[in-house]
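Friendly challenge for the regulars: who can give me the structure tokens for this chain first? No prize, just bragging rights.
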Amino acid sequence: MAEVDPATRPLSPHLSIYRPQLTSITSILTRITGNALIVAVVLIIWWLLAAATSPQYFAVANGVITSWFGDLILTLSLWAMWYHYLAGLRHLYFDTGKGLDIATAEKLGWAVIIGSVVLTILMLILV
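First reply, four minutes later:
Bragging rights claimed.
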């Protein structure tokens, strides 16, 4: 049986030479925004249930959701919604077998990032 020397084997990919790729970052961000949207929906449902419960409980929930922290959460949720939507369209395009080469995948990744920021700003201005 061959002897294995684990101390001299390199890690794959080695942390000192590995550069995160845009496609992997956008994929991870899609999963993160999906889970973050669940948290935002729970916050909004809490607010709606508080409105149906009592004026005092609604005042507490409304105070949280209209505070600077609530505004931050809702604004980030708006961005997450647009990002997740555009990333979903990107993956639908990938599912057709198109755009899978590296150059196109990176262009689409940047389009999702920039598009989500632009659409979020537009919605904040219009609403």
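Residues 76 and 120 are 9 Å apart (CA to CA). The domain at 23-126 is CATH 1.20.1300.10 (3 helical TM bundles of succinate and fumarate reductases). Your move, everyone else.
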